[in-house]
Amino acid sequence: MFAGVAMRAIVMEVVSACENITRLVSEIKQLLILGDFCWLEKATKAGAEERERRRAELDAVAIKLADELAADLFTLDDKLGTMVNHAALSSTSNAADDDMTPSEPKPEPF
């Protein structure tokens, strides 16, 4: 009878040890899972910060290029606009000299 009680106590200790090991494994799994999520959150934040920094750099470059393009367009407009205005004025003055008839008034729309 004593052997049966001792054997039962040993079995209970083994079962208790297995339960403790199972709990420990479960806690380790939870720690690893939560740790992975923490790492994932850090990686996501770092990626978002990098993308935001890169976007700011690209915005600055785009603004610089837009300013340079606007300056070039104003320069071209000054150069070409002057040439076009001279050509338009000379063709208008020639046309005015050739056409001595008074211009008729335009009919009003209905």
UniProtKB/TrEMBL annotation:
Keyword annotations from UniProtKB, A to Z: Nucleus, Transcription, Transcription regulation
Region entry Disordered: which residue ranges? 91-110
One GO term in the molecular function aspect is: transcription coregulator activity
Q: Which GO terms describe its cellular component?
A: mediator complex
Single biological process term from Gene Ontology: regulation of transcription by RNA polymerase II
Q: Where in the cell is it found?
A: Nucleus
Lineage, top-rank taxon, reads Eukaryota
Q: What is this protein called?
A: Uncharacterized protein
